[in-house]
Amino acid sequence: MLLTALEGLAYGGLYALLGLGFFLTYGVLRRIDLAYGTVVMTSVYVGAMIAGGLGQPWHVVLALTLSVGIPLSLFVAWLAFAL
Description:
Oligomer: single chain
Strand content: under 5%
Mean pLDDT: 78
Radius of gyration: 15 Å
Shape: flat
């Protein structure tokens, strides 16, 4: 019962962070960036594949995930808003 509640809080926190990202993007740019969730999920997927497949420590997974996520998000921002 306690474990289920803690998992629910963790998932709820992740959804809240994703929602805050949408809210901040719309609040600053006055545009809805629907690619935000795609970039986040792609980065998390890459991190999960690295962690599961290679068994690397968390700091290596974090560095590799950020090295994929940051350029991908900059490309999407350029593609969606600069053009």
